[in-house]
Structures are given as structure tokens and as C-alpha cells.
Design a protein that fits this description.
The chain has nine helices and 18 strands. The chain has about 400 residues and is α/β, with parallel strands linked by helices. It has two domains: about 190 residues, FAD/NAD(P)-binding domain, CATH 3.50.50; about 150 residues, D-Amino Acid Oxidase, Chain A, domain 2 (2-Layer Sandwich). Strands 1, 2, 8, 9, 10, 11, 17 and 18 form an eight-stranded mixed β-sheet that branches. Strands 5-6-4-13-14-15-12-16 form an eight-stranded mixed β-sheet. Strands 3-7 form a two-stranded antiparallel ribbon. Strand 17 and strand 18 form a beta hairpin. The chain starts with 6 loop residues before the first strand and ends in a 17-residue tail after the last helix. The N terminus and C terminus are likely disordered.
């Protein structure tokens, strides 16, 4: 089927933050890894992402399992980025500055009070701030702000720098990264994965395949219907801006009722993001820009003086229950790392750990990401987000401590 140079232990489909982190970890363990990216690494959803690492801020009672997964990944982030910067030589742009959630009027303040109660019931660290306290913390806030929540444990990272660091780390660990390599189909022999077929007809042999293809997952052929994970795109429009005067407007993320403003620490900011069910549409609209700027300007008037650098739309990959599918699936040799929706950057470390456990079959020891005192065990997290919940066939079991 192939020549020896095209044979790998693991083929990772997708070169975003998720796919590159898996490739890095797998290559570290001595596996022969190839990353197959349809465009350029990091140019999909990771390129458009704002980079909020905000499990507590984004928490909802309806998605408690996603909260637990996000908290586990957030706890892993400091060690993850420290190691990543050390091996890649690239600063991933991690900023442990905390997050402020603000209300503009009475109705929003009442809603924020309910959010505060809910987060405290979940055991999350959130502090209620009066308007004067909030403005003392973030002087750029408008005088009209009625209430704020200080979420010190929620941080941010620059996804573009993160993916650049992951790309370099994966290559230094020995992974092969191929750009412009569009995978058309998963190849099977005897009911198990045997490799992939590219759009140009080339076939690559691989003992195991990881699907980290984001919103384009559904286009892959070769996976039986009963073993597939359903993925659909959710559009998000986002603005990138900068302050000609340099940094100073904000030193932490601010979330409003509509959107959020994420500082990069150097005078650059990201303002986002819409949530739109429009299929694979990536056009940008005047209405979306207006609503984002209007909402942000009412909370932080200085935003309206920033220079617009980029207005872009991306596609978040979502599952029917808004939770990711991570780990081995029903087809032997096929592993999933899809459906991260709004949390792909946040869930990068924990996803790589869980997928690596499935690839090696040796549990999570030695991956460097395990939480020494987990609130929810990795075994339970793996079970909650198993691709098996979407498939008719029984999943392949993997040992997790």
C-alpha cells in the first residue's frame, strides 16, 4: 500500500493546538508521528480563538462535566506552558492575570448575582465587587458599571503563539508535519485502522490515527456510520485591535454580557465573539462588528479609540451535547480529539494527556500533565467524554489511573 518512508505509528489529522499537542506528546514517547494539516498549522479555529482559559467564568450548571474537564486542564496549564517554552524556545503568551465579569445595568447585575450564587454552589473561587472596587481594579471601566465578579483563577493565552510553540516542540521531538495535506479518508484493513488517504491519492500507513480535524471532521470518509462522532460548525466573528499608545488600557480579561476583551499584554487586544449557526460560512458582517464594539464600548469606552487590525470569522467544532469526544472510539486504532466547541485552547493539555493514554495503552503516568490532587479522576473524565456516547458500537477500552 505504501513505501516504508510513508509508514507511521500515529497519523494526526489536523494541525491546530489540539492536534499539535497530541503529536508533541506522542513523539516525546518515541512514537513515529505525522501531522497532516489541510492548510498551515494553527490556521483553523486556533488562529481565530481569543485564548481565554476560563473554566470558572464560562461555567454553567448544564455543562458541569465540561467544567470539571476545564478545571483539570487549567490546573495543568502552568507546568504545560513552562515545559513547552523550554523545549520550543517560544513564549506561548500565557498570562495569569485573572478575569473580570461586569454588568452594565440593573438587569445584568441581577443576572450576575445569580451567576455568583451558582458559581459558589459549584465551589468556584469568585469574588463580588462593588462598582468602585471594580474600577479600582480596572480603571478603564465605565462609571455606569453596576456590578462585577473577580475570577482570579481564570487566565488567558495567545493561541497563535501557543500553536507556533507547539509546532516547534512537535518537530523538535521528531514529529513530521505536512502542510497542505488534506485527508479524504481513513483506511482500514480487517476492520481496523491501517492509515489514511490524501486528496491527491497518496496513501500513508499508520497503526493508529487521531482525528483532530475540527469542524471538517464530518468530511472524512472511511469511518462506519455507527462509529462516527457527529460534528457541526458554529461560526464566531472576532476583532483584533491595538492601542497606538501601547499597553495600559487593560491588564486582565473583561467579559461582558455580549462578548469579552482579551489583552495580550503589549497593546494588542482581541474582542469577540459571536455565536452563529450558519454552517461553513466564514464571512464577516457589519452587524457583528457593530454589536461587538457597541457592547465593549459601553463597558470600556477606551475600546472605541483602538485601531482595528483584523476582523475575521472562524468555525468552532461542536457536538450535539457541546462536550468534546476524546479518546479511542469504536473502530480499532481510531482515536478522537474533536468537538471542543468554545474550549479548544483551554482543553489542549488535558486532551493531549487523555489521547496519549489511548495511543500508548499505558495509562497517564509519565505524560507530565496529570493533576497530583484531582477533583475528578482522569478515569472519570475519560469515561465522561468517551466518543462511545455518540456511537452504536462498544468503545475500545484503555487503562487510565
Amino acid at each position: 500500500m505504501t513505501n516504508p518512508s510513508s509508514s507511521f505509528d500515529v497519523a494526526v489529522i489536523g494541525g491546530g493546538a489540539i492536534g499539535l499537542s497530541i503529536a508533541w506528546r506522542a513523539a516525546q514517547r518515541g512514537l513515529r508521528v505525522v501531522v497532516l494539516e489541510r492548510d498551515q498549522p494553527g490556521r483553523g479555529a486556533s488562529w481565530v480563538a481569543a485564548g481565554m482559559l476560563a473554566p470558572a467564568t464560562e461555567a454553567t450548571l448544564a455543562e458541569r462535566a465540561v467544567l470539571d474537564l476545564g478545571l483539570a486542564s487549567a490546573r495543568a496549564y502552568p507546568a504545560f506552558v513552562e515545559e513547552l517554552q523550554g523545549v520550543s524556545g517560544i513564549d506561548p503568551g500565557y498570562r495569569p492575570w485573572g478575569m473580570l465579569v461586569v454588568a452594565r445595568d440593573r438587569d445584568e447585575a441581577e443576572a450576575l448575582e445569580r451567576e455568583l450564587t451558582m458559581r459558589r454552589e459549584l465551589g468556584l473561587r469568585v469574588e463580588r465587587l462593588r462598582p468602585s472596587q471594580a474600577r479600582a481594579l480596572v480603571p478603564a471601566l465605565a462609571p455606569s458599571v453596576r456590578l462585577a465578579l473577580d475570577v482570579a483563577g481564570d487566565h488567558a493565552i495567545d493561541p497563535r503563539r501557543l500553536t507556533a510553540a507547539l509546532l516547534e516542540a512537535a518537530r523538535r521531538a521528531g514529529a513530521t508535519v505536512r502542510t497542505g495535506a488534506r485527508v479524504d479518508a481513513i483506511l482500514t484493513v480487517g476492520g481496523a485502522v491501517a492509515g489514511v488517504r490524501l486528496s491527491n491519492g497518496e496513501r500513508l500507513a499508520a497503526e493508529q490515527v487521531v482525528i483532530a480535524a475540527g469542524a471538517w471532521t464530518e468530511a472524512l470518509e472511511g469511518v462506519p456510520g455507527e462509529a462516527r462522532v457527529p460534528i457541526h460548525p458554529v461560526k464566531g466573528q472576532i476583532l483584533r485591535l491595538h492601542d497606538p499608545a501601547g499597553p495600559g488600557l487593560l491588564d486582565r480579561v473583561v467579559r461582558m454580557s455580549v462578548g469579552y476583551l482579551v489583552p495580550r499584554g503589549d497593546g494588542r487586544y482581541v474582542l469577540g465573539a459571536t455565536v452563529e449557526e450558519r454552517g461553513f460560512d466564514t464571512t464577516v458582517t457589519a452587524g457583528a462588528m457593530f454589536e461587538l464594539l457597541r457592547s465593549a464600548g459601553e463597558v470600556i469606552p477606551g475600546v472605541l479609540e483602538l485601531v482595528i487590525d483584523e476582523f475575521i470569522a472562524g468555525l468552532r467544532p461542536a457536538t450535539p451535547d457541546n462536550g468534546p469526544a476524546i479518546g479511542p472510539g469504536a473502530l480499532p486504532g481510531l482515536h478522537w480529539a474533536v468537538g471542543h466547541y468554545r474550549n479548544g485552547i483551554l482543553l489542549t493539555p488535558i486532551t493531549a494527556e487523555l489521547v496519549l493514554a489511548g495511543l500508548t495503552g499505558a495509562g497517564t503516568e509519565g505524560t507530565g500533565e496529570a493533576d497530583p490532587d484531582p477533583v475528578v479522576s482522569l478515569t472519570e473524565l475519560a469515561a465522561r467524554f468517551s466518543p462511545a456516547r455518540f456511537t452504536a458500537a462498544a468503545p475500545v477500552e484503555v487503562a487510565l489511573r
